[in-house]
Amino acid sequence: MTKTTDGEIVHFDNVGLRYGTDREVLSDVSFTLFPGSFYFLTGASGAGKTSLLKLLYLAQRPSRGMIRMFGTDAITLPRERLPALRRRLGVVFQDFRLVQHLSAFDNVALPLRVAGVAEKDLTKPVADMLEWVKLGERMHALPAQLSGGEQQRVAIARAVIGRPEMLIADEPTGNVDPDMAIKLLRLFEALNRMGTTVVVATHDVHLLRKVPDSLIMRLDKGRLSDPTGALRYPPRPSGGFGARG
Amino acid sequence: MAMRLPPAFSGSIAQRLRSISGGSSPDLMPQGRLAGPMPWVIAIMVALTVIAAAAGLALSNTARNAADALSGGVTVQVVEANAVERDRQAKAAARVIQAMPGVEDVQIVSQGEVEKLIEPWLGARTGEDQIPVPALVDVRLRDPVDGEKLGALRRTVRAVAPAARVDAQSSWLRPVFKAIDSLQWLAMALVALLGVALAAAVLLAVRNALGVNRETIEVVHLLGGTDAQIARIFQRAIGFDAAGGGAVGLALGLVAVLFLGQRFSGLEAGLVDSGALGWIDWLLLALIPIAGVLLAMITARQTVVRALRKML
Prior knowledge:
- The complex is a heterodimer of chains A (245) and B (312).
- Chain A is of the alpha/beta class.
- Helices cover 29% and strands 21% of the residues of chain A.
- Chain A is globular.
- With 312 residues, chain B is of the alpha+beta class.
- Chain B folds into two domains: 30-66 and 175-308, no CATH class; 80-162, no CATH class.
- Helices cover 67% and strands 8% of the residues of chain B.
- Chain B is built from eleven helices and four strands.
- Chain B is elongated.
- Chain A binds chain B through residues 57-61, 79-80, 82-84, 86-87, 91, 97, 99-102, 110-117, 119, 121-122, 124-126, 128-129, 131-133, 158, 161-163, 186-187, 189-191, 194, and chain B through 1, 3, 5-14, 16-17, 20-24, 26-30, 215-216, 218-227, 229, 309, 312.
């Protein structure tokens, strides 16, 4: 097993991804994420943001290159060891991916149940979390009975309930009103201050300015736009970074 | 801007998440049936298996009891038209057999019993038009009859009763035993085939359920769910279906077996009566649904695990 350099949480080296025999959707992607940092991943639609996130949340193996996560070589890792790695991540999917036959409560409780938390221990935290995203009244509603914004809040609550080491969010504010968007960003920041590495994919440039201590990764046609710049092996953040971009 | 965190972030849940390896089996998906008709399919399979197994066990009992009863049995027929001479030879034969070593019992079958035996074929025999029937001597040896013992008996009997024919009782029923043996194999083959059919039905139902729940399974995987956890959900669901279906199938099968048993006992035929099921047989029949549940659960688990291995 290859170990990451001390302090690295994720390391991509010349990663390429293609689906089937099509052209590569990601090419020569190299970067390092450090614990406790806040990253925005930006780029136009079709730039490869979602594909890059899929590699990050271990839904996809790359076609080439090397990926290390939490000090583990994620390429050669046997699939039976993937769940342990995935439990260290929280993911907000672009299409929410809520389980349609489960209530909002059960969807948020899902990561805790997967991790084996006893029912008596998860009831209050899940109820509190739903209260916090202002869905306390709707905890028994099925996803189909919720609006797009409400579903997104359930998806976010599910991603953060287990306090992951790294939070990966794909357009997490796409369906919520501006007030809720700010509130969610503040939640991500608060998690970030507690040590969670946050990666938020967004095409909303206004969002980038709202988190001053963030780093920005920009994808353009499957490549990081400045692969030789700060985002390729960026130095360990010290004293805070200003948003670049 | 200071941000108040949700109360859930007290740290305790996070601590627990780190420490649990995922060995438990939470209710990740509803415990609904895998497929509507599945319990009924299992019920029918179990009922047919119970009936086939009961038939096999009854045949086995019939063969064993008949073999036990006839293994030491020898029949002496004195085929003599003259009634006085016939009786004399029968008595003489009985006397010399009684004196032989290894003989447990010798009985001359009374004329009345002989006539009762042949009545179904010749009708009630009255008056003077009676066809002479052989005198019968029923001999029971301590050990099973073999060729040597039968030869010795024949030599001894012929010396005092020249009209006597000596036969081992088991030799008459050899074709019947062969037929019973074939039926037993058929019953076992039916039980095995029904087991295969049950496994196939479960396999199809689980594959269908996997397809329907693919999205949920992917989400559970991405949240850190293991193959074992997902397989347990399907295993448990099919277990419930199989348990319900198995109980109904056992009840239906037992009703059919009891009904058939009652009908066969009405025949009052010794060979059929000897096939009655003992308590061990009933216990074996009761174990069929349990075996069905185990088979269904193992099939479900193997199917799910194999399918999940194709996913990341």
